Amino acid sequence: xxxxxxxxxxxxxxxxNPKIWRYLRAPIMINILDIPKYTDWRGEIRELWxxxxxYQVLLRGIKLDPKEIATKQMNLEPxxxxxxxxxxxxxxxxxxYKEYLKADHPERVVPVVHTNWNEDQFKKLMKIIRDFMDxxxxxxxxxxxxxxxxxxxxxxxxxxxxxxxxxIRKKFECIHVLxxxxxxxxxxxxxxxxxxxxxxxWIHDARFGLIRIGERAVSLKANASNDRNTKLTDDEILEVxxxxxxxxxxxxxxxxxxxxxxxxxxxxxxxxxVDRISSLSRSELLKVIKFxxxxxxxxxILNDFE
Length: 306
Description:
The chain is of the alpha/beta class. It has one domain (6-204, 272-304): Queuine tRNA-ribosyltransferase-like (TIM Barrel, Alpha-Beta Barrel). It contains 12 helices and 11 strands. The strands form 2 sheets. It has a 9-stranded parallel sheet, with helices on one face. Strands 10-11 form a two-stranded antiparallel sheet. The longest helix is centred in the last third of the chain and has 23 residues, at 256-278. The protein is globular and about 60 Å long.
């Protein structure tokens, strides 16, 4: 099966972010620990993904109850629900998966395999899937990819992600990658026929005074001499985008309106970029990958699965 890569926009209610679903029809992912008491927003979102909050539970030192997570996710009637996982401990994750699947849970759930899993742990997950789930309709998530593509970018870290991809791809076609931050990995995801990925980069970039133009991160900070991101003049930005002059002026301000405008622009740019990347041929995608050894590695994987 051939997929057109999709981006799922990660959203947080707690940080004053713009309700992006009112401006774009992209799928939205929220965290079950982050939702407000009121749910009038639910009917506005066409496709809803709900994360389990497993990582946040670990950070806050809260005990995670898989059955409680399942119930909270069910109440939101999500299109997809991420199963509760422990990024640092595959054994605990597998135990949580069993408890979660024995409870009432959303119809379409996504188990997550992290880049620190080995083949034996994946085989145990396969047994759980055979016992509790419909193999033909399952999406498998890959976790831990975000930690491999942070700045400074080290392309060799992606090999760990690619090895996890190979492990999963032997048994499953439909793969979702969680928490992808940078644009560098997106062409690789498209080449590997990944179904979807989620990211909050559209928000994070905006908070740091950045807008995206294609894959480039452009700084709008007035004093950015030490900034590693691209600097363009106002005329250059206006020439290559559909941003209006008064909007650009507002984007530069360090206030709520400026943040909103940067975030909205970044979300639209991201969706447009993913659509463009998804339309490229294999040879065109390979040209976008900057590092030769990564191109060769990906080609080998593609050949293995043909």
